[in-house]
Design goal:
single chain; ABC transporter involved in vitamin B12 uptake, BtuC; 2 domains; two-stranded antiparallel ribbon; 4 strands
């Protein structure tokens, strides 16, 4: 970075993700903080952390599809539902239930098939027409799982047994936190390397201008199908993990609003940024709980408590509008400014050396 005193003199240094001591230091602090978090936090906070990790995986996949490939999807909740109900169908139709290490990959396979089907309209449609096609996929999938749930005789949802991975039994929030943390780290590392590979460069070329990408030799159809298939598969596995964590799967949970929430996550966090996916997932997931805590702390009159849900949606919409107007690049842009300030400190201004000297 110019002016920071850290210069890159080789290609591996240039390709390093954490390329300065400042970034490596804060990465170590972050990891140590996450490892220590379950030992000091109340169980309720650990539960919220698990919800954020689950949302982060799905938000990251949507950011790969929308932020890096340029295909907007409102059907993200459908792939989560497909993963959850794949697990539910295997659990209630097979005795004894299939093991955890088999049902989650099966959910990923179902998600890949649905992603392949959803990608076919993307080969011909763009912009609002593509959005409408993903909405149709959402309603087809959610109607299917709703009919399956009702025909199977489960009114309020299907119970999912406790997940067991060999000797490890995922039966409490702390164990789930560490397991989901490992899964999130693995998915993140894979995604970082993916966007820096030939596939990622092809996706970004399609996002910027698919006609120019095709003229340069990029197989646009193949990479669009690959983007939908890969992200849908991982999203379905995230839905399967969510079903195991909550110990139930209910069709009523996967509404079109859930897909809008995930769009909000990548808008607030930063479209086209892997780090922004985590920022957005944390803010959007925790915002309803923060608002509930705020209303409880100020003793809202009972007459006004009926409007709490409407206030939450109003705050949600206001947050998206503010970011679109004031910071279109999301929270990650604010973080980059703060990071640059501390990396350059105490030098507030940096002037390049004069070329005449």
């Amino acid at each position: 970075m110019p002016g920071s005193g850290h210069f890159k003199t080789s290609f591996p240094q240039d390709m390093a993700v954490f390329d300065t001591p400042f970034r490596r230091l804060w990465l170590i602090i972050l990891l140590l903080g996450l490892v220590a978090f379950p030992f000091f936090a109340p169980r309720y906070f650990i539960h919220l952390g698990n919800l954020v990790l689950l949302a982060s995986i799905a938000a990251l996949m949507l950011n790969l599809l929308t932020g890096y490939t340029g295909m907007i999807s409102l059907g993200h909740a459908a792939f989560l539902a497909a993963g959850a109900f794949t697990v539910a169908a295997l659990v209630i139709n097979f005795k004894p239930p299939p093991p955890f290490w088999l049902t989650v990959p099966a959910a990923g396979a179902v998600g890949a098939i649905l992603g392949l089907l959803a990608s076919l309209p993307a080969l011909r449609l763009r912009a609002v027409y593509l959005i409408l096609s993903t909405v149709s996929i959402h309603y087809i999938v959610t109607l299917t799982v709703s009919l399956y749930q009702s025909n199977a005789g489960f009114i309020s949802g299907i119970n999912i047994p406790t997940a067991t991975l060999g000797p490890l039994k995922l039966e409490n929030s702390r164990t789930w936190f560490y397991f989901l943390l490992v899964v999130t780290v693995v998915v993140t590392i894979f995604s970082i390397n993916l966007v820096r590979s030939r596939i990622g460069r092809a996706w970004m070329a399609i996002r910027d201008k698919d006609i120019a990408a095709a003229a340069l030799g990029v197989n646009v159809a193949f990479y669009k199908i690959l983007a939908f298939t890969f992200t849908s598969s991982v999203t379905a596995m995230a839905g399967a993990l969510g079903a195991y964590y909550l110990n139930y799967a209910a069709a009523e949970e996967f509404t079109i609003w859930l897909g809008i929430f995930y769009i909000a996550m990548i808008i607030v966090g930063g479209i086209g940024s892997i780090l922004g996916s985590f920022f957005g997932a944390a803010i959007i997931t925790l915002m309803p709980y923060l608002l509930d805590g705020l209303f409880q702390s100020i003793n809202v009159p009972p007459r006004l408590q009926t409007y709490v849900f409407a206030i939450q949606f109003a705050a949600f919409g206001l947050l998206i509008a503010l970011f679109l107007l004031l910071e279109p690049d999301g929270l990650v842009a604010i973080w980059r400014k703060v990071r640059t300030y501390f990396e350059m400190w105490p030098l507030k201004y940096h002037r390049p050396p004069s070329s005449t000297r």
